[in-house]
Amino acid sequence: MDIAFTDTFQKSLTRLGSVDRQTAKERVVDFQLNPSQGSFQHKKPVGARDPNIWYCRINDDLRMIYHRNRELWTLLYVDRHDPAMKWSTRKQIDTDTTPGVMRLVEVKEAIQNRLIIEDDPKGPLIFANYTNDFLLSLGVPADWTETVRNLHDDQIEQLIDYLPDAVVERLYMVSKGKVVAPSKPLDVDPLDHPETNSQIVRVRSELELTRALDYPWALWTVFLHPEQRDIVSAQSSGTSKVFGTAGTGKTVVCVHRAVELAKRDPNSSVLLTTFTTSLSTHMKNMVQILCGETGIPENLNVVNIHKLASDVWSTTSQKAFRVITDNEIDHMIENIVSGIPSYPFPASFVKSEWKWVVNYWGLDDWESYRAFPRRGRGTRLGAIQRNQLWTVFQLVINEMKVQQKVSFSGSCRKSAKLILEDASLKYEHVVVDESQDFGPGEMKLVRALVNEGKDDIMLAGDSGQRIYRINYPWSELGIDIRGRSRKLNINYRTTAQIARLANGLQNQPQIDGDGETEDRTTLSLLDGETPQIVRCNSQESESEILAIWLMELIGEDADPRFKAHEIAVFARNRRILAKVGGAALSMVP
């Protein structure tokens, strides 16, 4: 039998203890095979507003809430008896607002005591002048239009717990003055509509159901926002870009996009890549989960960009290179500078010039460095000064040749040249995550890996999270994004309070390699405590305050607010973590 389940069902399943969760999963499989088993004891919850909402017995304690409409049974929620019954009275399936779309929404009357609508709002009522038809076109249920009209800007986020994400996002974008496309009725089965699939997904076999329940924490495997789904399935005339702040699902989109491209054309080769080894490993695990029993497609390669550069050299039987680290380069420069009497530049400036000009742009001869514009470097250099610096850089380059070593970015540039000479090393499609960290060397390799054309490259990133590089124009490397940029607006992972603090720290507009100033406003689906910033006069004071705070979190009660393993302490580097964090931990019983 076909059944469907909602994201609320998966989330409620995740919150159960391990024993109850396993029991519920086994009973759900039984439910799919034969829901008429007498042990389920189907009943209608007392007080449920939706006449098609039922519940059944999982065991003595657990109850499963589901929606039944003809032959479709949709699993909504699982919990202990009393909270499950209470939940069932607040929810209903809406199929009327947008034809062809199914939505799980909150019964309006059930939230009056929880939704804060001020009689005298601080700002204007932002939706007061919009017609019912317009609000309905955005997906607002008919009995919610009056409530929406009485909201001002700061209250939109309150709707997150009650209306579908896509609806709240449209309202949020309208409030920001954006042009918003209404929800589109499509001539498809409601369970195949992208907006339905952001909340409700059908499973047609026991295998599909078991796979879905095996990864209840991985909601991204089945529930995609309509905008994410559009990006995943889009056909682009050339290179495209996806951007959004931390937590908006860029990596999820990249993983789905790479798998989609690989399955769309099994004869093509697809690369999914990123900057760091840890993220590429994580994405490979995500692909494995997403593909399930079929495994990672043979035509899909998931690898970080520097490992790929090394693989290119191995494939072409080139003499193996060893990568030289930044610390090794710094040490080399310090030794050279200290050995030159009365050298006019401090070693710190020489190291910076090497990192952000010479090595960054692959300048390997005097003529290239002498004419290079050095954008954004601040300190102006004449020909004599550049020549003095080049004497050091030439010694560094010579020593690297002797040691048969190359920098990470240098390895990418060398591999790009090899690919241009051997077309068999190219891919048909390349998907890049964390593109903000790709320097000119890495981006040059990306461009060389695939010929220009339909769906050639998709870049996903956030210039506000840039760690490893400075900004530069992608167009200089043959990457043209014009007219093919999409923003992700919903934040799934970061609380609204943390997002506001983080964005407030960036006092300059964030401009990516395509020259576009990125809009960093997002709608966060999570609410939390406001982060506290405490200024300390010394590291000793910092350790003491941290220790006091940790003891407050753990407490001395038998039922503490948090357990020790639920708390993480971070620092900018290991030295500070050991000195400040270690001292704090030594004070905590």
Kindly summarize this structure in a few lines.
The protein is an alpha/beta fold.
Detailed description of the structure:
It is a single chain. With 589 residues, the chain is an alpha/beta fold. The protein has helices at residues 7-15, 18-33, 81-88, 132-137, 145-149, 165-175, 194-197, 206-214, 226-233, 250-264, 277-291, 305-315, 326-338, 347-361, 366-371, 383-402, 408-421, 440-449, 496-504, 539-554, 574-587; strands at residues 3-6, 53-57, 62-69, 72-80, 91-94, 103-106, 200-203, 240-243, 270-273, 300-302, 322-323, 405-406, 429-433, 457-461, 485-487, 490-495, 523-526. Strands 10-9-13-14-8-15 form a six-stranded parallel β-sheet, sandwiched between helices. Strand 16 (490-495), helix 19 (496-504) and strand 17 (523-526) form a beta-alpha-beta unit. Helix 9 runs parallel beside helix 10, helix 10 crosses helix 11 (277-291) and helix 13 (326-338) packs across helix 14. The model has no long low-confidence stretch (mean pLDDT 88).
Summed over residues and divided by their number, the pLDDT gives a mean of 88
The shape, in one word, is globular
Contiguous runs where pLDDT drops below 50 for at least 5 residues: none
Q: Report the strand count.
A: 17
- Give me the number of helical elements: 21
Identify the strand order in the major beta sheet.
Answer: 10-9-13-14-8-15
Distance from first to last alpha carbon: 56 Å
Helix residue percentage: 25-40%
